[in-house]
Amino acid sequence: MTTGLPARSGGAVLTIALLAGCASTVKNYGLNDHFSSTEVTSGATSIPEQCANTMDAVWVEGASYHECIRYFPSPAFASGHVARAVVFMEGDVLSNHGADPKYSNITPQDRLNAAAGEQQRDGGLAYVIVGRPGTDGSSGNQNRRRTQYETLVMNAATDKVKAKYGVKEFGLIGQSGGGGLVGALIAERQDVLCAVSSSGVTSVKYRISEAGRSADYTGTSPADVWDPYDQLPRIHSMPGVRMFVTSDGSDTDVDFGSQDHYVQAVRKDGLPIYQVMVHGSRASHHQTYRVGNRVMQACMAGLPADFIVKTFTGMENSNHGNNRVAGELRHQTGGNRVYEGDDDSDNRNATVAR
User: Fold this and answer.
1) Distance CA 264, CA 228 (A)
2) How many whole angstroms separate alpha carbon 274 and alpha carbon 259?
3) At 86, phi and psi to the nearest 5?
4) Contacts of residue 155, Cβ cutoff 8 Å, sequence gap at least 6
5) Cα(58)–Cα(120) distance, rounded to whole angstroms?
6) CB count, 10 Å around CB of 303?
7) pLDDT digits (tens, 9 = 90+) for 184-207
8) d(CA 286, CA 276)
9) Which fold has domain 10-332?
10) Per-residue b or e along 328-339, where b marks 16 or more CB atoms closer than 10 Å to that residue's CB
11) What is the mean pLDDT of the segment spanning 313-337?
């Protein structure tokens, strides 16, 4: 059940107002339209009537949010019913340098293709990319990422997808800022069987402190961030849940120390979490979501945690043998033939969690 936001200090509101420009109405994107960087930097609004006429979108509202959230489903959703589905959340598109220049090259069709590719690699498991507020045609404000607002909106959107398609069990995976949302959402839900945070911002306040900053990179004060670390006592997950974190010790965007800080706290609470040390791509060593997707595949297939950790430790995220690994996992579980297309997606957007 979703709720509205509690009252927050004026400092956070002022910061958001300074960062954001004048919000426009979110565009109803066609399949081949390019996403707008202006919507990322300034935010965008919607109304229920517009949302109802938007392809693959859900209207969510609570006491302090009213948003239209786009999602990009794999072909399995076309049947109208999926019992199990993986939800992927992208990393931050906005940084303290503005919107990622590559973001405006992306279209809804690109997102749909990515979801379809993952379904094929995983032998038919439904896969959906959910657009975070202010990105990918979703209304809302990227400047309010890592606040309770974003968690409430994404949780409500997941509820709507669940109700529409009859989903019983979810896998949640996210890269960077999306990985932080994985940590936040498992404290809200009791239908998550597998959770994978890839280079996630899961210890926001610790990261702020270790960097010697007085606020998050978004400008939000420690008092106003919604820190997954702080939500650990609220986790009451479904039986059999397993959590994984894919990390690179050389990550320069979301330092390994902050990721490990979260893992150690989860272990102290007696929850099943496993850290998989991999080789992240790009100069920052930050992108680990490709390995994360294969960890998710193995987890949802019920493979033992020790096998998963051993199999993926040391793997390269930029490894274009991703499909080979997916096929080996399917063979391990008696799945279908391997997807024959390469995983030639770029390393997502900015996903720098700045």
Assistant:
1) 13
2) 12
3) -100, 130
4) 2, 185, 188, 189
5) 25
6) 16
7) 999 999 999 999 999 999 999 999
8) 14
9) Rossmann fold (3.40.50)
10) ebbeeeebeebb
11) 76
